[in-house]
């Protein structure tokens, strides 16, 4: 079955193709659609639903959408839904600042700024920068599979890790986003060092997609 994915991110398309086998994943630009909705929600769920419902209104076929980001305990859960736009303290302190937009930065620059922000925040709070307990973070992913008007499936999952304390410690070439600076103690690897197969089994997106697709398979014959 063809399922549309509400994104222009080719990394996410590749992950979804692996997670949603045997279904065919199509993104808007595959069929010449320009799709860039305003993500005005205040939660991962709200933004995911905005994207899924918005594309469904255009294609009238099942649409899967995700909204995800990294939440750092030391930053009170930030950058959260603003992870893609994050560009350091000036962004978190004034999200209305038109110059504070991480879309203008490389991912390496964003990663460096996040580590710097966490280190400074911990120092200001008088907490040990080297204590892994103070550097806990998690990826959060909300998946919405929009099927027809006012009917959708949803799952939200997390992927726990420890934020590295120095950008020079970043490792790995797999994955994307903040993966090279999130360390997994139980694997003794960063997320970016995991193979695709390993990551898809335990990641926030992998778990959420599997939950949604398992529920969908029970009713998929209604959409053939």
Overview features:
single chain; 224 residues; alpha/beta; Maf protein; 6 helices
Description:
This protein is α/β, with parallel strands linked by helices and 224 residues long. The protein has one domain (2-223): Maf protein (Alpha-Beta Complex). Helix content is 31%, strand content 21%. The protein is built from six helices and seven strands. It has a seven-stranded mixed beta sheet with strand order 2-1-3-4-5-6-7. α5 (196-202) crosses α6. The chain is globular and about 55 Å long. The N and C termini lie close together (7 Å). The relative contact order is 0.15.
Largest sheet: 7 strands, mixed
Span of the ends, CA to CA:
7 Å
Figure out the total of helices: 6
Give the helix/strand class. alpha/beta
Helix content: 25-40%
Total number of beta strands: 7
Arithmetic mean pLDDT: 93
- Could you list the spans in which at least 5 consecutive residues all have pLDDT below 50? 95-99
């Amino acid at each position: 079955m063809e399922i549309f994915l509400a994104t222009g991110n080719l990394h996410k398309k590749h992950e979804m193709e692996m997670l949603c086998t045997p279904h065919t994943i199509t993104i808007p630009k595959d069929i010449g659609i320009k799709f860039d909705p305003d993500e005005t929600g205040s939660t991962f769920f709200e933004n995911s639903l905005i994207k899924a419902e918005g594309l469904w209104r255009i294609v009238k076929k099942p649409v899967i959408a995700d909204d995800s980001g990294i939440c750092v305990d030391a930053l009170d859960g930030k950058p959260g839904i603003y992870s893609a736009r994050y560009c350091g303290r000036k962004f978190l302190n004034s999200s209305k600042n038109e110059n504070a937009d991480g879309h203008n930065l490389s991912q390496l620059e964003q990663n460096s700024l996040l580590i710097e922000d966490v280190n400074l925040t911990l120092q200001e709070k008088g907490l040990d920068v080297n204590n892994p307990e103070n550097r806990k973070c998690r990826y959060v992913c909300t998946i919405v599979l929009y099927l027809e008007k006012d009917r959708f499936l949803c799952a939200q999952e997390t992927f726990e890790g420890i934020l590295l304390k120095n950008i020079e410690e970043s490792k790995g070439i797999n994955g994307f986003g903040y993966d090279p600076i999130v360390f997994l103690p139980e694997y003794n690897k960063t997320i970016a060092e995991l193979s695709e197969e390993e990551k898809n089994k335990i990641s926030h997106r992998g778990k959420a997609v599997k939950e949604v697709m398992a529920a969908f398979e029970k009713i998929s014959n209604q959409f053939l």
